[in-house]
């Protein structure tokens, strides 16, 4: 069983588009316990410093990166199930992305797609995929094959 309260998302930048915010809010209602921390846009160095201050030593760091590992929804659900409820922090960069040193600190890098998305859409996609992984793990009807 996936324990969503073990997951956290650190995201750079505010959600400005109302339709994206509404989508995020809908999924967050379905994922009680998922923590989302928003960081103000700044320089990459300042963003990295702030992210490092937020991350605890016992957290498993996953950065989102178009060069990261791609998964099907079922593969992502399995990877998360196999993490044995570790505390996992997903980090979504802003317009300039994340520093290479932050990506190198990550336990693994996740690609939502080989396409590049605005950070707002990446956040919505990640939260939706966490919800989908939860329903797959529960054997729920949300995921169709």
TrEMBL record:
It is found in: Cytoplasm. GO terms for cellular component: cytoplasm. Keywords: Cytoplasm, Methyltransferase, rRNA processing, S-adenosyl-L-methionine, Transferase. Pfam families: SPOUT_MTase. One of its GO terms (molecular function) is rRNA (pseudouridine-N3-)-methyltransferase activity. Its EC number is 2.1.1.177. InterPro entries: Alpha/beta_knot_MTases, RlmH-like, tRNA_m1G_MTases_N. SUPFAM superfamilies: alpha/beta knot. Specifically methylates the pseudouridine at position 1915 (m3Psi1915) in 23S rRNA. The keyword S-adenosyl-L-methionine applies. It catalyses: pseudouridine(1915) in 23S rRNA + S-adenosyl-L-methionine = N(3)-methylpseudouridine(1915) in 23S rRNA + S-adenosyl-L-homocysteine + H(+). This is Ribosomal RNA large subunit methyltransferase H. Homodimer. Its main location: cytoplasm. S-adenosyl-L-methionine binds at residues 64, 93, 112-117. It is an enzyme of class 2 (transferase). The gene is rlmH. Belongs to the RNA methyltransferase RlmH family.
